[in-house]
Amino acid sequence: MKKYAIVSLGCPKNLVDSEYFNQIFIDAEYTMTPDAEKADIVLINTCGFINPAKEESINTIFEYTELKKQHKNLKVIVTGCLVKRYLDDLKAEIPEVDHWIELKDFYSLKEILHTQNAKQNRAILTPQYYAYLRISDGCNNHCAYCAIPGIRGDLKSEPMEALIEQAKDLAAKGVKELIINAQDTSQYGTDLYQQQMLIQLIKAVHEIEGIQWIRLLYLHPAHLSIEMIDEIAKFPKVCHYFDIPLQHINDEILQKMNRHTTKAHIQSVLKHIRQQMPDAVLRTTLITGFPG
């Protein structure tokens, strides 16, 4: 029996890519093992966003190429954001890696495993009761400190029909909490439909039997409006959990960061959330020591 292991680093968006790779292994009749020493293949899905993430990715690659010295038959495959940013350098510095796969190049893994599946499916790597629904990839915001547009490109929303089918499939498999995820969830649909379509998507997912919780991640404050908050408050299944990356509150710094928002707007949004949903929880990120 052929065995494989997946090491998924970085954000939940990267984890979704790992889940697509996971399905390809299953289609090729491989069995997952938590013990890499028993695996025939280890796939490492790297993160290349900030320096600590890069270091973790490189150290993980070295860990498994070192393991190859004891297990000669082990194959190491590396993919992900670090590969997207530094492929040529990585190839030169770590020749022990058997295969380098470009970001989201699922076809290459199929070729390596000598398998073909017509439909691109996911096999989730989270516990059965929750799963991520990545509604778009890439980003159009171009914040001054962020490498995501250079790695994942501009915003590319998934068609709503495909997302609803994916959500129904996850619900049928026992998923109770659906975590809606993207680089900027509030901008979902602006490329495909020329308008924000997050609320319409929430409404459709809200009606799916079996889904009990809907959690929203990464609502960029520049695109989160009072009207959107009012709509979100109408859905009982949506958790009163707001993941809003504020990064800063000083107008001059926000402008230098290219955040497209102001202190006044951020304060009005937070105040309105508290008024509409007094039990709301805020999860955020803040940057100190911004260059310049």
In brief, what are we looking at here?
With 292 residues, the protein is α/β, with parallel strands linked by helices. The chain has 10 helices and 12 strands.
Descriptors for this entry?
292 residues; five-stranded parallel beta sheet; globular; alpha/beta; 37% helix; single chain; 10 helices
Report on the structure:
By secondary structure, the chain is α/β, with parallel strands linked by helices. It has helices at residues 12-27, 51-67, 81-93, 106-113, 148-152, 160-172, 198-206, 226-232, 251-256, 263-276; strands spanning 3-8, 31-32, 41-46, 75-80, 99-100, 130-134, 136-137, 156-157, 177-181, 213-216, 238-243, 281-283. The longest helix is centred in the first third of the chain and has 17 residues, at 51-67. It contains 10 helices and 12 strands. Helix content is 37%, strand content 17%. The model has no long low-confidence stretch (mean pLDDT 95). Strands 2-1-3-4-5 form a 5-stranded parallel beta sheet, with helices on both faces.
